[in-house]
Amino acid sequence: MNPDHPTSQRPDCIEQIRAEIKGYTFKPAKRKKTPAAPPDPEDYHYLFTVATGDRWMELGERQPMPKMLFGELWHEQELCILFADTNVGKSVLAVQIANSIASGKAIAPFAMQAEPAKVLYIDFELGLMQFYRRYTGTDGHYSFSHNFIRAQFNVDNELTRNYGDNDDHLIAGIEYKVKMLKATVLIIDNISCLRGGTESAQVALSLMKNLKMLKNDYNLSILVLAHTPKRRNPGTPLSADDLHGSKLLMNFADSAFALSTSATDHHLRYLKQVKQRSTAQIYGEDNVCLCRITKPGSFLQMQFEGQSPEYPHLRNRLLNQHLLAPKVAQLASQGYSQRQISKELNMALGLVNKLMPR
């Protein structure tokens, strides 16, 4: 295109109208892209910190060793993920961990080496009355540690001006509260509320980068709650692949553990260590932690009751039949019909008929 030609500066819409009047096809001129300015080497001066191996070891000696917050599952200054299916009890466990850290009292059998710390619990799940009922009993409500601070998202007060992505608003709001409260521990329940309902890798990458920056800028210990896929195969062991959405979430995490329901008893749960960087794997496939949701007094919590291999708690057809047969026989002896047994044990009517004593 000749810049000196009188038609060279006309907008494309004008040229298209002229083409239609004259009866020929309009073809917009190709415009050259302005080349990007070359990068300034000074912009990259502080991108990497470089030192010899011995220097890194010297610096490492000066750093305090991260202390356990929830046994080997979560250490100080780690970005940790707790994931589980819906209604398994991950929020119950998360509040229990938050209160443990805030009060400096360990949850047996997990060690808690850190001093009491200020915990900011961002709750996207429960409303006021739902939270109140969970921690209220016949003798009144539970008295939390003053270091436990719960934040509830105010939907009616969302920003109305166009400041960019909604997740950026939430991260900025969380950062503001962390700074204002001088919190050293952050728990987010749950991470799906920060992802805009999407499973794109780009969104996951951006989210984890933001959380990593928060962790580094304020020396935070962060625990984020997440879901397992709805169609997860309950007959296979829990693994990092079961984290709902992009695996980038797991790649950016320092540690992760999962909570699942046992196939032997729908009231029984087990906790499994899935990823760790600060310790060896203690609670793996051959040594998961068993627990139940209980409410002694007014505090809803997980009560831990020993360890077990994971295999017996997976939904294996032959194993389940072996475990269910005595329960079917017991209910049948009490006069339950097959249809009533099916409803009581949440199993297929045909399987009830197969397991009925002859």
Question: How many independent structural domains?
Answer: 2
**Structural class of the secondary elements?**
alpha/beta
Radius of gyration: 28 Å
What's the architecture of the largest domain, going by CATH?
3-Layer(aba) Sandwich
- Order of SSEs, N→C? HHEHEHEEEHEHEHEEEEHHH
What does this structure look like?
By secondary structure, the chain is of the alpha/beta class. It has two domains: about 80-315, Rossmann fold, CATH 3.40.50; about 315-355, no CATH class. About 30% of the residues lie in helices and about 15% in strands. It is built from ten helices and eleven strands. The strands form two sheets. The chain has a nine-stranded mixed β-sheet with strand order 5-2-6-7-1-8-9-10-11, with helices on both faces. The protein has a two-stranded antiparallel ribbon with strand order 3-4. Strand 10 (about 290-295) and strand 11 (about 300-310) form a beta hairpin. Helix 9 packs across helix 10 (about 350-355). It is extended and about 90 Å long. It starts with 11 loop residues before the first helix and ends with a helix. The mean pLDDT is about 85.
Features of this protein?
two-stranded antiparallel sheet, 2 domains, alpha/beta, 11 strands, single chain, 358 residues, Rossmann fold
